[in-house]
């Protein structure tokens, strides 16, 4: 168990230095032909599953009944390059300052040595510490870790805003049928709630004393050919609610009708009916309510943080729970000028056609609003960002295995990219994969530098 604990020393050391806790080595699982297998040397440091990346401190079997394979000290491969013989690099003009623990532990040595597992300490050269902000990674290590980079470019960032909504009627397409005088409902056509009516279609027949008196006056002035009084008599009928067609019918017949046939004011469905044959109807009492469903509203509540991204005129995709595979496009008509205090959301009104009648009142709907920036912005892949909470960092690829951590300010996210408001310039190459390993190397280097300076000051 002691040997296994040593395998995780690097992770603990990097965490202690404030870096991203990353183990800077891995167990090598070579695939060789049977004739190429060589016995390892040194003590057994752990056992690995021959079928997968699983490890054990003691001998055991996997789920398939196969024995775990013993891994000896010589078979374990570090991500660090094998240190050359002492003085080898010095002959090339590079001087070794000290040697550091290969597992990342806070231990240095002025001379070559081995750790308790038999691994050589890693040399740290003078030219590697000239620029404290730059990390130098060898080509061998870059190949092992799979480092990838790409340039920062300007692009459009579209981040759709998603919210839940509810289908509602457009009150501008709703009519209430009522009387402007006291009357009696002689009879009602056979319409019930939910039936569809067309504009001008008879709904009921009405008798009213005031209506009869106004009609009699209109007929009298017509028969008297009193042009000065005709307009006043006609205006009185209009004020009582008669339309042009009804008044024209009275003028043609020159007779006072006993009852008036009351028509539907618009196309739509009868969603409420209170008129009954023989009932007395007071002025203003609602007898029918008719709604046109050819255009409906979807009222959606969006989070307060997304209000800036939403604007009137943007396209919205509506998917109802009843028809998830039949999206309907609409447009934002209005953003209501107040927030809901309890939910901290803003309500938007989306108008969309309902020609097939699929959208029913009070249906729940999933809303996706297509938002986009005003233009192209500097953006980097989200995978390139190392988010440490209070700060965000990108690793600049400066070529020849040199990398520089750069603190940046992040803006909007969308389509797998993030807006970079400051910190890098267009064309700078940033690391998009294995960046946490390089960040760990950077933090480790900074910690060792601080340790080295601390020892020098004693």
UniProtKB/TrEMBL annotation:
Domain CzcB-like C-terminal circularly permuted SH3-like: 379-438
Molecular function per GO: transition metal ion binding; transmembrane transporter activity
Recorded superkingdom: Bacteria
Pfam families cross-referenced by the UniProt entry: 3HB_CusB, Beta-barrel_RND_2, BSH_CusB, CzcB_C
GO CC list: membrane; outer membrane-bounded periplasmic space
InterPro entries: 3HB_CusB, Beta-barrel_RND_2, BSH_CusB, CzcB_C, MFP_Cation_Efflux, RND_pump_MFP
Domain CusB-like barrel-sandwich hybrid: 175-290
Segment forming the signal sequence: none
Domain CusB-like beta-barrel span(s) in chain numbering: 296-371
The protein, known as: Efflux RND transporter periplasmic adaptor subunit
Homology family: Belongs to the membrane fusion protein (MFP) (TC 8.A.1) family.
Domain CusB-like three alpha-helical bundle: 210-256
Organism per entry: Methylocystis hirsuta
